[in-house]
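ok here's Osmoprotectant transport system substrate-binding protein, seq below lol
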Amino acid sequence: MRRRPLAALFLLAALLCACAGPVADAGPPAEGVVRIASYDFAENQTLAEVYAEGLRRAGFEVAVQHGIGTREVVFPALEQGVVDVVVDYLGTASEFLQAGAGSTSHDPTVLRDGLAASLAPRGLTVLAAADAEDQNGFVVLTDLAVRHGMTTLSQLAALAPQMVFGGPPECTERRFCLPGLREVYGVEFAEVRSMPSRSATVEALVTGQIDVGMLETTDARLTDASLYLLRDDRSLQPRENVVPLVRTEVATEGGDRLRSALDGVSAQLTTIDLIGLNRSVAVDGRTPEEAAARWWDGR
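and the structure came out like this:
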């Protein structure tokens, strides 16, 4: 199997995405180790650990590399053999590859098959999608929502010109974030601020630095009565079922054992599980690895 060391990821990150998250220092893994990469936010890091443990239980050696960046970094890393597996989300991954592809259907099976067809020529295999789903959500303080009688994103449009928005750096480019809010809802904010993390977004909301923030719909902090998730009443967001992407070379070498291990995780994973995993990290203070171990202990 042709492999490139994880050290090559530094060069990829520098060339492809100067704003990418930090890359941990890691030497080249031993031959035969399955290398799982995560995006630079906590939920995806936890999912990487959950799927990694599934592989370990099937007898594979696994190395997990956290927070290597956005899709602009991760997809080339997959294609060039720097990493082997990433856990992604159906709609956003489809949209990243081809504008409009993430919104072609609200049937996860159709989206998964379309994503598989797009990635096959690039040497990547799409495995079974989980029932677990996590979409972009747009959040305000409950007091503000009550004061303005605002429950939906449609109602946000009239107030947005006086508001400050906070979200991840890539939000300005992603179809299902600011561009979609403009196109589908006519939402234009007075100011947009880049948030380094979801925790920073919540802190900025609570302290009044921003008025609207982007969080994932599975963020456990949304159970806090002070935060209000605005309803996506025009269905901007696509289906975002969790789905593993694997280098085809690795999928072929790993055979049914590798596929069954990853598909087995997907078969168990629910949206409620995602919320619990996120709570374990964001509220209870566990590391992604600890949260994943706790999830597996409950199987």
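fwiw The chain has two domains: 8-133+238-297, 136-229. kinda neat tbh
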